[in-house]
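Researcher: Next sequence.
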Amino acid sequence: MAESFRGRKGIIIGGGASGLMSAITAAKQGADVTVLEHTARPGKKILSTGNGKCNLTNLYMDPSCYRSDQSGFETAAIRNFPPSAATAFFRELGVLTMDRGGYIYPMSGQAQTVLDALLRGADRAGVRIITECEVRNAKRQKDRFSVETDRGIYTGDFLILACGSMAAKGTGSDGSGYEIARQFGHRIIKPLPALVQLKCEGNLLPKASGVRTDCLVEIRTGDGKTAAKDRGELQITDYGISGIPVFQVSRYAAKLLDRKQKVSAVLNFLPDLDEEEVQDLLKEQRSCLSGETAETFLNGIFNKKLASVLLKAAKIRPERQAGLLTKEELNSLVSVIREFVIPVKETNPFEQAQICAGGVDTTEIEAETMQSKRVPGLYMVGELLDVDGICGGYNLQWAWSSGYAAGSHAAAGVVQGYRKTVWGQEKQVKFSGSEGNRARGRQERKKHTYDPDQSAHTSRGSRGRGDKEKGGKALKNR
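Model: Next structure:
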């Protein structure tokens, strides 16, 4: 533990990923940093990321991987502290990482490793962490900040809000940071659940509950326009739909539903084939199994439970002989397979959401530094801001990048020796102080394949990707 400080004094509200990164960065530049955490243990949400394996960043980085009302706001911070910087940062804290098709995990395969490293780094840098500390009020008086808590009053030259969002409340995210931001005059874009399951109407699809299948999921408005779409492993549930492609489009469904618009999820169960190819496939299947029932005829293509649902949706009796299926019946089945439409009534609540769409309006925040444009010395980072990433380590990367930006600027302004990178280039990243020079991470390109070992928090299924830490379209139809 460091014994003395020569720099500025700062307070950080929130001991999650972005708060700990802010604290370590500021303290390593000489700031006297105190973290106020309202739960009994900091970083609890980190433990649930990547299904406990912690997908801490991703080598494929592109602005299309992030969503915000101010498109591209996150670019500056991630350009200045990219995935290679994140992996180098954790390497200095003793964490070896492994590259699984661009997804970066700790070598141990445990999120606890990442949290332990952050807490160790904070301790080494001299950061004080006060747990079970409820913030009652925060204000700026002259050139200093005062934070009133149930454990006393803390003062500092700067204040960083790293309070998280309203998602996954069980990990400590209770939305309290929004009220603090409001007290300082900031506008809050309504938080809505994102990376979350969708509840749907109708009792037909739930008959296939438990089935997992490759699927293209499309969100459409009441007038038939496509709001978003994504492909991956769909999980059919008794209440609706889940899985990576659902998580990726859920924030768009949430926004539409919040505006009281009609929303439908359109499922394509054979996304690799066009309409004519699906017709040819069914005709060939009919020829192979002409003497069998329609149920058996479709079971050779789909899970039995899903096949039964598709037949009912196409109004085909399961006992009907496959060889007697008419052209009209096959056409009806083609339509159901390629466009299975289910109305979406709502998302699952914040408790089941991984992140939120919405938060502090980023037009009121400096993109390079995370400093408030309204209140000098006030910074906001991580999920508190109106920035949400797709599945695959992007939200943790945002926590590292925004935390680094705020911590470095709050403590000492411009970081000496720091060489910025740009989306389309790879450069060595140089840090100040004891961090020294960091060699860039291994950036060789790998062909992406779906790894069934990856959790629902991180898998992208078979969707194409962009370049590692380079430009290009990582996602389609964003």
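Model: The chain has two domains: 9-193+354-438, 197-347. The longest strand covers residues 226-236.
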